[in-house]
Fold these 3 entries.
Entry 1:
Amino acid sequence: MLFVATGASFAEAQEPAPSSATPSPTSAPAPVGPNFEERLDEIDQRSRIALRKLEMAEEAAAAQAAKEKERAAKDKERANVKIGPSGLSISSADGAYSVALRAILQVDGRIFVNDEHKLTDAFIIRRARPIFDATMGKNFTVRIMPDFGGGQTVLQDAYIDARAANEFGVTVGKFKPTIGLERMQNEQATYFVERGYPSSIIPSRDVGIAIHGDLFEGKLGYSVGMYNGTLDGGAGGDIEFDDSKEFSAHVYVRPFATQARFTRPKFVSGLFIGVGATRGEKTGTPANTYLPVYRTSGQNTFFQYIADTSAGAPAGATTVAAGVENRLTGHIYAPIGPVAFLGEYVIEQERVARGTVSKLITLQAWNVTAAVALTGEDARFEGIVPKNPFDLTKGHVGAIELAARYSGMIIDRDAFGDFANDQRSARYAAEFGAGLNWYATRNYSVKGDYIITEFRSGGATAAGGRRDLEQVFLLRNQIAF
């Protein structure tokens, strides 16, 4: 009936409207006959065709929607592969799982000045580290990082970090104990080629467990750990042979960590202040003294305890660790626009013994560093990112940074005589350094330092003279991604 009605209406629309005037002899009703029915059939047929086309269009739209839905479902299952300044990474579509491959390569040069060829000028592979990171289910991360630099193979990092929330996480394995500021800074981000003297006293890495977290939206952070214990500046072994353990605690504040940018004072936006402490016990043997040597920025030893390793030497001829070892640290990092200030102080007390004599030895070390990005980039603890990466065709030179440092170490007078020889070891070492760093891109940089180190004692004379000044030019080529 619809088609009939529609056809009728259409027919009415096609017929001239009847005039209201008196019908003329020539006006007559539209004929109803075979032609009219044929037209109705034609209209009905066209309507059916139109309806079918509409049905087909709807079917096609539904099929397309089904394909889009299927494609979206497949996209959710498809892994994302990325390669860029942060290295190569593969992650699941929802980001819950990921693996990343990164690396650091540092090639250093050391040129000593006015040393009368007593010290060795050299080019070395300082660090060559592939880095494997993985995330498992967002709450669990893994890092494995060996180091093939320096003519040896060392497992630097191998840990699992489980973080239930920002306020609570647990790290297990081999990693950096978080008590030293410059030690926590990534190797590729340090202002100078070598770290200052406080990092010589703080363990580089150790095997253990640490609980950590950030409270009050990141304004307060903490870390408490228990480790096997290692010597000053050491990376620790992968296994342990004694029961003694070392405990550490670190607390820091970042008062402006989460404030909105428009209310955050820019000159203190990354302010970081912290204190840390360790307490442990170590008992050494002539074969494993658990005592370090301390080196200058030129990597020359300026202090070491007496060690008699000759055949038949009595057991008491070598100085060894003989009990408690405590450290206390304080540090501050303050970025002020393109200027960064880093300050750190460490004091350590360690009991040593040689033969029947035992004493508690105190060491102190400090580091005051200032740096400025001459090209205007904001100072960052993680390292400068050039505003305009190196590109001569565009007139871009990258980022240039100027740095200065005063750092040193004082060793207790009681260490000399019974435990150390003041003709071979210096009681005091302090360095003045200037550095010029060029960050061509986020990944490639060149650092150049000139370091002058002054000593007290260690002059290799019976009269106890001073060791000669050490002047060294350090150069580093670095790729990190």
Entry 2:
Amino acid sequence: MPNPVAASGNRPARPIPPTGCSGQPAAHRPQASRVLLGLALGLSASLPLAGCGSVSSVRNLVVGPPSPYLSGFIGNVVADEPVAALAGRDVLARGGNAADAAVAVGMALSVTLPSRASLGSGGACLAYRAGSGRSPEAFLFTPVAGTAPAGQDSRPASVPMTARGLFLMQARYGSVSFDELVKPAARLARSGITVSRALADDVAAVKGPLMGDPNARTIFAPGGKPIAAGDQLSQQDLANSLDRIALAGVGDLYTGVLWQQFTDGAAIAGGGLSRADLRNSVPAQSAALTVDAGPDRVAFLPPPADGGLGAAAAFRAGQSGDESGSLANGVVAAWRASHPGAVNGGDYAAEAQALVDRPSAGGSLGRLPASTSFTVVDRNGGAVACALTMDNLFGTGRIAGDTGIVLAASPARFPKPLLASSIAWNPTSGSFRAAVAGSGQNDAAIAVAAATSRALHGSPPSPVTETGRVNAIVCARGLPGDQSACTATTDPRGSGLATRSD
């Protein structure tokens, strides 16, 4: 059963314990990840060390303090934007797990690729707990339409769902305090980033309507010229908003000071969002769709992230040797026709699972909005695969006042994107096998299905359609297991980055 979260999104920050006195590297002890991340952020520097013996002190004097970074295999991150991928890798290197790193990537994307994943966006993720052998769970925070009148300059916006959705996932699967994972994104926004080709291409694609908004023009066309790859981009208002979330909690965007600033700004921008819309729109936790694949099993996102349904149906058909090329979108079209009001928190998993096992296709989808994706695997085999969207490149093309947040487009105005991802695991050994997340508008679902099938046959992803893109991590001999057989791949036609451990 789905488990909607009605909480505000605030929770007490988890304390970061002081470094112990065993003399072993922190990574080899319980609570290691929190210790290491705390060191990395300078949070533990002032913690008392009373009770520590002299051995570690002498060692530190002789060889220096232990490095906050792990050595050896730390896992992999693959994302459509390089700086965001590196933000996730940094968390893994400092002892965070896959859910921690995924939050860092998602928050960083709000700075580095706001065209597809600003704080105003929505999406969905799968998360697998390392070594559990249990099915990954889905976290659903797809875009939600507002209910307030949009005004004369009508550009209906979506309720911002990504921060709350990632918070829910990290609360269930993470190992460090959420605020520590927001701070790197705030620093990126404040100090500035080098504009990637991915962001520059998106700006160029919609520069006309985007520059119609004075706030957007100030950010994305400083000096009157749209930003290009290699330019420097700083976003001070967005940095302030991220700082606010790190300080006051995610709930501040939904019931606090930032909530008031955002809704006031959205109203001026014609977004049609009320404060009740933000307060009442919550993410959901749900069972994933699953398909057996020999000794392994594969989980896919369930509706309302119905790209996962299409990918699951196509993957299962391919396993049986049936034609799957047009099945993915046909199943989704039939599902949407029968479930026009599917929402986060709806109880769709059982019905959608039956459709995977006995697919029924019909209708067409039309042209669908853009999205972005990323995958993360940690050194223990924990994994996350996410797809995020603005329901349109740069959403409404408007900024919510002085928050610096780009407003995503309302799902009441644009068709839903195909949000698709998968995670494969071995239920007997508990080992992780593969994580795949896709984008590419109408080709996203079939791209995920094809890449997942290749992964379980020991092959890296290969482009199967003109626009379908995947970010994939494959551990051919399982993880935990032979980590040397793990590979990370991003589509060579895109601008993404697949990090490595060496």
Entry 3:
Amino acid sequence: MVGRIEPLAPADLAAAQARLDDLTKPPGSLGRLEEVARRLAAIQRTTRPAIRRKRVYTLAGDHGVTEEGVSAFPREVTPQMVLNFLRGGAAINVLTRHVGAEIAVVDVGVDYDFGGAGGLIHAKVARGTRNLARGPAMTRDEALRAVGVGEELAARAAADRVDLLGVGEMGIGNTTPASAILAAFTGLTPDEVVGRGTGVDDAGLRRKADAIARGLAVNRPDPTDPLDVLAKVGGLEIAAMTGLCLGAAARRLPVAVDGFISTSAALVAVRLAPAAADYLFLSHLSQERAHIRMVEHFGHNPLLVLELRLGEGTGAALAMSVLEASAKILSEMATFGEAGVSNREG
């Protein structure tokens, strides 16, 4: 899969830029819409990109590190919210309906038996991770199996002729592994990578930093081996999102990446295959304070600043409308010649 990911071709990017510069507007006047349009065009290898079908994958998993008191909510909330997604009552349901996207909910590692719950994609690798503060969160095999779940989701989307993917998550306690991943790759201290997540108080913030410090000490994740980092301090839904980012890039599918936790998965993907970054669009800048430190490792900034910190794929859903608008600008606007409008040269 990683070997099939190609960087965007400079010739495709140049062709898209040439058409952007010939549209009836001053060059660059549509700001970042033009940057997004240029990349979408190069991904689809056309100067008239189109987004007809959109899908958000919301991946769910539980985390053993909640034993350390790192979340303001009990882990029972994870399956309760999954059932809420299936009933259509969560924020992600509202926003996907708003932007005309499908939502697909995936159980990768929830510590709950959903039986034959309709509408749920059953892909459980394990009933949650182990406590990363005391040992590896996953075995390497479990991490690889979760990555494979994400890769299969990307393949399913490509077979369904989806043009744009969004990725988000649900998992009580998952800001802690996301922060640990950032610390493992960058050498930032636990105090620098933790945030308040679901709203922990100062004591909860100290417990998160302490859990990460112990997790890094006991596991010693190797930053030169992204799968080692993912297995030792990551999460099942995070691993699946990594696989989805890689699988989508291998199939030239653009992905709107949600906030802090989703970006940690994308960071692992880019460490495994740097060219995958060309296919990933960071949807928004999270209120989680270390998100800006993750963003620094991508070649582009988030599209929206809305002070979101919910997850679920909410920011990704909202960003889909920006990506769709960018594609329409490039495809539907008239050129100076077509409109009979004089350009700067007269």
